[in-house]
Amino acid sequence: MTKAKWIKMCAAIIIAAVVFCLPYEAFGVSVNPVERRVIFIFALAAFFWILEPFPIWTTSMLVIVLMLLTVSDHSLLLFRSSADGETFSNLIPYQSVMATFADPIIMLFLGGFFLAASATKYRLDMNLARVLLKPFGKNPKWILLGLMAITAIFSMFMSNTATTAMMLAILAPVLSVFDANDKGRAAFALSIPVAANIGGMGTPIGTPPNAIALKALGTAGANVSFGEWMAFGVPYVLVLILLSWFVLLKIFPITKKEMELSVGDKFLRTPKAIIVYITFAVTVVLWVAGEGVHGLDSNTVAMIPMAVFALAQIITKDDLKKMSWDVLWLVAGGFALGLGLSKTGLASHIIGAIPFASWNPVVLMVGGGVICLVMANFMSHTATASLLLPLFAAVAVSVGSHLDVLGGVTALLVSVAFASSLGMCLPISTPPNALAHATGFVDTKGMAKVGILVSMMGMILAYVMMYFLAVIHFFD
Amino acid sequence: METINVICVDDQKDVLDAVLRDLRPLEDFFRLEPAESAAECRELMDEIDERGESVGLVISDHVMPGELGVSLLGWISATPRFSKTKKILLTGQANQADTIRAINEAHIDSYFEKPWKGEELLGTVKKLLTAYILEKGIAYEEFMPVLDQAELLTFLTRNGFDT
């Protein structure tokens, strides 16, 4: 561990200890010792995630273990009862803390990993990209739009980072023969991460913050199905992609008149490849059709490709080991934090002490989105969502019908989740941004300009859409 | 940031200096270590290993007093501690038998003939070190400015995840 990381770690622990010791009673909030420990864990996680003395998924693991040791019903003996020997009533069953790692939404994501890994392994992604790019011809302007659309569609099912890596690998050889003065190089290099970040919002499995949002929605009693999410997510993505395309063309006009990309080769026709195509299609259809049609919950549907691919040896033991288990831990830690806040009663006690119901609902919605957007630019999107969404879920419950004119709890939580995906102003904001920046075709200033514009448009669009959905009673 | 060492082995001081000069752009990210003989290289590698650091790459000449380069590289690839270490043979005097041994027994990753082109060597070194970092599962983000783009993108297409 380097010196800088030691300092960061100590700083985070000290801040968390200070937060732990604050006189909450003086602010009119009564917290019992169990809740106080949750406050400590929350503050520690927040500052570990912000300062990053450790990789962020390890902080998630720490959250789960600390919760088991200090606030679960099987915690250390000295933590279970108060000074006068009375057992605390708000300890969390230890099974529920552990179960965050086997949460149905974790299974949904794991199913998504299986689909993405098999699509890449059997080159379905590259070959689809070739077919989908064809209609966009040779005019760079249209190719730019085509690339953005394809990137967005892929990142709805693959990780934004993997999609970006794939598309940049296709683009890099072409961009290096562009004229060095052609601003279009920056447009192309930026279009990929922007489209990938946007595309991630299209489906529940597009990006980890959506998982946190689904969980928070469930806690607040507002379940959103896979199909429902796509019903507003996909149109949102399409509109935002179009707007971003305009922005990119305006800021970085392309001078090159003609270009051609060489992508992929032939679709594989082996039995295994065909199983991949069919399973992929069937899974997506089942997801979109929804529980009402076939009775299967979307999390259950996600497990079908797992069994098929494992049996067909499309996903081997080795592929299984290489999956992003760290992402699942990251998300599970977020769930555990949410569990701690809701199950100990801490969230409702704190939120209850602030009269949110008397606030203007517009201030609440926009304020939440802005805080989230700012944080997401400087730290992990998933960590941002993990810290904010459980709190906003409690806010939404406490203000009740007050928010209904703007779309209620769903509108609040989805717009905050979208805000966390829209943090893309800096190379450090997301891994896709870092990759695009590393190509050398785009500088930080250009990225910031586009990032700010796109995220502003994205926030406004999200609010307009939520208002519209509220008007047509979509969530009722 | 994890300390990754790059060792250059050559008995001629001027060659050693020339190689190190070519690799100077990597200085801020890797520790460049010269060694004037195979024995010195082995000793250095043991020390590095004891410090808990890693040896990402060894660039070795072949004809040197004492142990030959191909034999040194063969020892590296047969030693489990250094099984992932990348190896470049940089020589003007290897005969066919040596070259065959270099490939079959020492499993070298690249072969450079003297005189070499600095830029080409730097490119290959970047590529091999990128592969080393990704294979070892070392956090690649901190090395981003010097990594080989194509290598990184190919890896992340399969293994990239969102945070």
Q: In summary, what is this structure?
A:
The complex is a heterodimer of chains A (476) and B (163). Chain A has 476 residues and is mainly α.
Major sheet description of chain A: none
Based on CA atoms alone, the radius of gyration of chain A comes out at: 23 Å
Helix content of chain B: 40-55%
Bin the strand percentage of chain B.
15-25%
- Mean of all residue-level pLDDT scores of chain B: 92
At the third CATH level, what is the topology name of chain B?
Rossmann fold
- CATH class category label of chain B: Alpha Beta
Largest interface: A-B, 36 and 20 residues
Query: What is the count of structural domains of chain B?
Result: 1
Number of strands of chain B: 5
Task: Identify the quaternary structure here.
Answer: heterodimer
| Average pLDDT over all residues of chain A | 91
Number of strands of chain A: 0
The CATH homologous superfamily of chain B corresponds to Response regulator
From the spread of the alpha carbons, the general shape of chain A counts as: globular
Q: Helical amount among residues of chain A, as a percent range?
A: 55-70%
What's the SSE pattern of chain B?
Answer: EHEHEHEHEHH
The chain-level structural class of chain B is alpha/beta
Using only C-alpha atoms, the radius of gyration of chain B works out to: 15 Å
Largest sheet of chain B: 5 strands, parallel
Task: Walk me through the structure.
The complex is a heterodimer of chains A (476) and B (163). Helices cover 69% and strands 0% of the residues of chain A. Chain A is mainly α and 476 residues long. In chain A, helix 7 (140-155) packs parallel to helix 9, helix 8 (160-175) runs antiparallel to helix 9 (184-199) and helix 12 runs antiparallel to helix 15. The radius of gyration of chain A is 23 Å and the shape is globular. Chain B has a single domain (4-118), classed as Rossmann fold (3-Layer(aba) Sandwich), CATH 3.40.50.2300. With 163 residues, chain B is α/β, with parallel strands linked by helices. The mean pLDDT of chain B is 92. At the A-B interface, helix 5, helix 8, helix 17, helix 20 and helix 22 of A face helix 6 of B.
